[in-house]
Amino acid sequence: QVQLVESGGGLVQAGGSLRLSCAAPGRTFAGSPMGWFRQAPGKEREFVAQISGGGGNTLYAESVKGRFTISRDYAKNMVFLQMNSLEPEDTAVYYCAVRQGIWGATSTRDYAYWGQGTQVTVSS
Question: What pLDDT does residue 101 have?
């Protein structure tokens, strides 16, 4: 079994920050792009950010550009999502995933492994 584990979610006021972490115990995904998605109540899962296997390239959804930063630590086999200037609209369950497909970085179909998600709630 392959399982990703997200952490770092919580309740924060608008304008605040949170740093999400994604760990992959027992397996290294250093050669694979990693992504973050989120799903708000009543909405479909949407793309947030992706980082390339080498870590040199990143891609962000327009809604989070300039506010969120995706990064990875190969030594720890972890991926992070630094979220700044949070807005109530950012409230959702955030998931990390391993990309192994070719549909496109923003498509859930490209990601083979997922975590259970971590809740992020932004209050006004």
Answer: 85
